[in-house]
Amino acid sequence: MTESYKNFIGGEWVAARSGKTFENRNPADNQDLVGTFPDSDRDDLEAAVKAARGAYDSWRKTPAPHRGEILYRAGQILKDRKEELAKIMTREMGKVLKETRGDVQEAIDTAFYAAGEGRRLFGDTVPCELPNKFGMSVRCPIGVCVMITPWNFPMAIPSWKIFPALICGNTVVFKPATDTPASAAKFVEVLQQAGVPAGVVNFLTGGGSKVGMPLAEHPQVDVVSFTGSTEVGRRLAESCGRNLKRLSLEMGGKNAQIVMDDADLDLAVEGALWGGFGTTGQRCTATSRVVLHEKIADAFMKQFVDRVNKLRLGNGLEASSEVGPLVNQGQVDTVEQYVKIGKDEGAKLVAGGSRLTDAAYSRGFFYRPTVFDHVKPTMRIAQEEIFGPVVSCLRARSLEEAIEIQNGTIFGLSSSIYTRDVNKAFQAIRDIQAGITYVNSPTIGAEVQLPFGGVKQTGNGHREAGQTVYDIFSEWKSVYVDYSGRLQKAQIDVS
């Protein structure tokens, strides 16, 4: 029986006020209906924002250690339900089960990390220049936070945003991607089960134009956190800038793995395979470019193409599958368009390049893992984010040229270098323009205790995860306590 999901507003699961719904189907099998979901509109988002605003005062006054205990319980529940949640996620967005288990695990890790911050949320205590005066800084919550999240990590990315916002004392309105509403609903269900009070977390599904953008523009919303396309991010930046509203953006990437002539080639091939085709290439951190030193380029390509051609595509719930489908027809169309662009630009197609249409794959959005060789840095397939199973391989004569190629896009999210030379590794760390650099591992694999985000047009300077995310969801207040019993004038009464 198909599950009929609802919005979560003010502590209650409710249908869209219009009664309208939309379907969500398995991208590996379009006959598998995951569920029906509320097609929300202005009336629903107004109710969600009102509920979040109404719950804010009580929640911000709840001691942070108690907020942390609730998040810790959420982490335990996620851990207990990990397999169930992973299977739902695979059904609705396609990536193989071992990856969706990892997605849930990242939410578990973030829950426990954020829970610990309930007993930290450190400020500074500093000496003052005048006698009998005390100075310190403290974090304060901001208000109502809107979270707009993508479909490729439907639990991990919401956890990066929602858990830190809650531990800081904010309330939340959560709008997930329409391709993955079931995972998001289950995530909110976990928070409800953990004891998050009514109105503190509100959840509604629907399209970006009817729900996402109006939420971001709502006058009672104080913070917007968005992960998604650069185009939508720009629109949000314009809107939030006009209203002087805090905005955190995490957008595109065109990440490169550099392979030097002294690299362990077997290891580098494994890295490019996982980085390029994990999540079917649908990651902002995907290894969409491989920059090869010319001395080892041919040897690398021989191994790499051989391994790519042996990857097993299939339904992510099947244990034998290594690569799942693309998430929807739109992603298939985009990949097909870029493969044509690559051919027209003169790049050499050496693997893949077409849909799988035989009977075993006909009900899903399957596309063969694709590799282009002899790609030039200025080609569109080397510059633009494809968000699919397409890897562009380029060649360089030196480390300096490889780094120049790596830096030569508008993005700067993740990067990687394979080398046995510690001097080259540290030169790359210094000179690569990216928010993340891996040495001897692929461009994917971030952990929750370090900052996540990029430079240039990848974002707007904020970082998720680690300690830095708490600067998105809190304001700093400086506190001075003068116990001298007389007026003291800073910078004036200093002898």
The structural class is alpha/beta
Distance between the termini: 79 Å
Main beta sheet strand tally, sense and closure: 7 strands, mixed
Low-confidence stretches: none
CATH architecture identity of the largest domain: 3-Layer(aba) Sandwich
Q: What global shape is seen?
A: globular
Number of folding domains?
2
Count all strands and give the number.
22
How many helix segments?
14
Mean pLDDT across all residues, rounded?
A: 97
Please describe what this structure looks like.
It is a single chain. 37% of the residues lie in helices and 21% in strands. The protein is built from 14 helices and 22 strands. The strands form six sheets. A seven-stranded mixed beta sheet has the order 15-16-17-14-13-19-20, sandwiched between helices. It has a five-stranded parallel beta sheet with strand order 10-9-8-11-12, with helices on both faces. The protein has a three-stranded mixed beta sheet with strand order 1-5-4, with helices on one face. Helix 2 runs antiparallel to helix 4 (97-117), helix 3 packs across helix 4 (97-117) and helix 9 packs across helix 10 (297-309). The longest helix has 21 residues, at 97-117. It is globular, with a radius of gyration of 24 Å.
